[in-house]
């Protein structure tokens, strides 16, 4: 019998091939939750690692508490979002921050590798956004509106809009199965008035989870405690007492932001919670239907936002 002898190079090549086959066989994405488990599947996009947490962090915590699946996606890696640090080390720092924030909220998180400040509505980015929505088998997709002060915010909105139809087209990104039903697409609310003001269709009370949202935002020290791209040395606490004061200042600022949302959309809160309960809501997030996805009626909105008695 002839003995077959493999060279070391062939053995290494075979081992590598076997490893990748095993990885692919185990799961295309081990972080994907089980499909068809009766739970909602929500995917939210923000330009930077902190945008989703600011805009939908409280509602994400409410969904997660009910066992629904929430994925927060940063479309850039945030690698210039600090006054003192930049590049790979900052991107890694911010990735760790949003991972810890998602642990607190009960969501999962994904950070794309686009450079901060350089996002463009390219074909490849459109493909990747489409892939992520399909892989998550989303019922609801959230994003910023495409009119905003920051180009990365604007183009995140454009990219998600561009995916709103393409997620159903079989021969666009054909390696990922298209969605049979177009998800509902919605925008976060904002303060911009031109070319048109934010006009949300749903407002959600955060009163029961506001501390959890504030805890999640607190771990993003690069952005809030230290001030992000527009911070400065003077923000850095020098003593434990100064740190406590700075932490309270940041938390109070975030709480005021959601207090303002509740006051701006008080009538919408009354519509969804009833006059008496809606009047008492202190903190809120609000969301506007995008015309490019499926157009839900109020019954479907209640299914997607299962927080109203």
Report what the structure shows.
- The protein is of the alpha/beta class.
- The chain has a domain at 34-204 and 286-304: Rossmann fold.
- The protein has helices spanning 8-26, 51-65, 87-105, 123-136, 151-166, 210-218, 240-264, 266-273, 275-280, 298-304; strands at 41-46, 69-76, 108-114, 140-143, 184-188, 202-205, 284-289.
- The protein has a 7-stranded mixed β-sheet, sandwiched between helices.
- Strand 1 (41-46), helix 2 (51-65) and strand 2 (69-76) form a beta-alpha-beta unit.
- Helix 2 runs parallel beside helix 3 (87-105), helix 4 crosses helix 5 (151-166) and helix 6 packs across helix 7.
- The radius of gyration is 22 Å and the shape is globular.
Secondary structure elements and their pairing?
Elements: H1 8-26, E1 41-46, H2 51-65, E2 69-76, H3 87-105, E3 108-114, H4 123-136, E4 140-143, H5 151-166, E5 184-188, E6 202-205, H6 210-218, H7 240-264, H8 266-273, H9 275-280, E7 284-289, H10 298-304
Instruction: Report the sheet with the most strands, covering strand number, pairing sense and barrel closure.
Output: 7 strands, mixed
Fill in the CATH topology of the domain at 34-204 and 286-304: Rossmann fold
Assign the CATH architecture of the domain at 34-204 and 286-304.
3-Layer(aba) Sandwich
Shape: globular
Name the average pLDDT.
Answer: 91
Our measurement of the CA-to-CA distance between the termini, rounded to an integer number of angstroms, reads: 77 Å
Question: What strand order characterises the main sheet?
Answer: 3-2-1-4-5-7-6
Question: How many beta-strand elements?
Answer: 7
CATH superfamily of the domain at 34-204 and 286-304: LmbE-like
Q: Which oligomeric form is depicted?
A: single chain
Rg from Cα = 22 Å
CATH class of the domain at 34-204 and 286-304: Alpha Beta
* Total of helices: 10
Helix content: 40-55%
Encode the helix/strand succession as letters: HEHEHEHEHEEHHHHEH
